[in-house]
Write a structure and sequence with these properties.
By secondary structure, this protein is mostly helical. The protein contains three helices and no strands.
Length: 92
């Protein structure tokens, strides 16, 4: 009897899995809709280009900012050395 009950439970689980409705999240639905839109409008290459350009623009901005910061640090160090040299000459 126990074996028969396990078989019925296993069959019930199998039937439940087969008949259970797949729940789709809003994210899944949105992704499917977006993919359909991109395919229908044939804008995948344009989107890819824009994505890359956006990345390159951000990278260029970060590189330029880092370069300016480095230049400012070098200028500040130069001023400090000059100030120290003047102070040293005054004391000598």
């Amino acid at each position: 009897m126990n074996k028969q009950k396990q078989t019925h439970t296993s069959l019930d689980l199998a039937v439940e899995k087969l008949t259970k409705k797949n729940d789709m999240t809003i994210f899944d639905k949105t992704k499917i809709d977006w993919d359909k839109f991109v395919a229908s409008e044939k804008i995948s290459k344009e989107l890819e280009y824009s994505r890359k350009d956006g990345y390159l623009a951000k990278k260029r901005f970060i590189d330029e900012t880092n370069y300016k910061l480095l230049q400012n640090l070098k200028d500040e160090e130069k001023k400090q050395r000059h100030f120290l040299s003047l102070k040293f000459k005054k004391n000598v």
